[in-house]
Design goal:
Elements (H helix, E strand, L loop, with lengths): L1 H6 L3 H4 E15 L2 E14 L14 E9 L2 E9 L12 E7 L2 E2 L6 E2 L2 E9 L7 E9 L9 E6 L6 H9 L5 E15 L10 E14 L2
Antiparallel strand pairs: 1-2, 1-12, 2-3, 3-4, 5-8, 6-7, 8-9, 9-11, 10-11, 11-12
């Protein structure tokens, strides 16, 4: 719904998977508190969206942003299905699922951990970078951590629309988690991080993993 409202696109026609992350915390040093936040949206395209034409789907597209006070770094990355993710690229924006297990409630493979990575140049000074990593441990089943809901999207829409969606073979589910006291490993110039080049930021994170088909 967010994608449809903001970007004017129907999510089920664009992607088969979505990942979202929002983090908010503070950088407390020398009695000062500076707001730290990060956000990310990633999707994997359907077969109809590829490099040149239909049938080349599976492209992972990611956009994000990392901010420390008034300092901002935008991140974006595209990974083609026939390419490996690079480790020495100038800009990194990635969400990676770890230790996935089949969830009988949804029929999808649910990750037990999701790793988020940001790295990009500062908007005000392209010669300096901000980077961050967040490992979000969600567990599974009785060991779930911070699970808000597994949203059965078809159960939330009218029967007429449900019949149309069922005919397309899609059964969208949205996993929603929220946790306090999550650690964001933040790296950047000492002038931005109050004299530090690397520091752990404790904050709150909200994460979604959506499966469309």
């Amino acid at each position: 719904m967010l994608v449809h409202a903001i970007q004017g696109m129907r999510p089920n026609l664009i992607a088969t998977r979505w990942n979202f992350c929002w983090f908010s915390g503070t950088l407390p040093i020398d009695g000062k508190e500076t707001a730290v936040s990060s956000i990310m949206m990633e999707f994997t395209t359907t077969d109809s969206h590829g490099r040149k034409k239909g049938g080349e789907g599976g492209v992972t597209v990611n956009v994000g942003c990392l901010s420390v006070g008034s300092h901002v770094a935008a991140t974006a990355e595209t990974k083609w299905p026939d390419e490996a993710a690079g480790s020495s690229v100038p800009v990194i924006s990635r969400a990676i699922h770890y230790d996935s297990v089949r969830d009988k409630d949804t029929g999808y493979d649910q990750p037990q951990k999701i790793g988020f990575s940001w790295e990009g140049p500062l908007a005000a000074d392209a010669h300096q970078k901000l980077s961050a990593d967040l490992l979000f441990d969600v567990g599974f089943g009785e060991q779930s951590k911070g699970l808000i809901e597994k949203v059965d999207v078809l159960a939330e829409i009218p029967k007429v629309l449900k019949a149309i969606v069922n005919a397309t073979g899609t059964k969208p589910y949205i996993y929603q988690w929220m946790q306090p006291d999550v650690i964001l490993r933040l790296r950047g110039p000492e002038g931005v991080l109050h004299g530090q080049s690397e520091i752990d930021i404790k904050g709150t994170a909200y994460v979604e993993a959506s499966y469309v088909s």
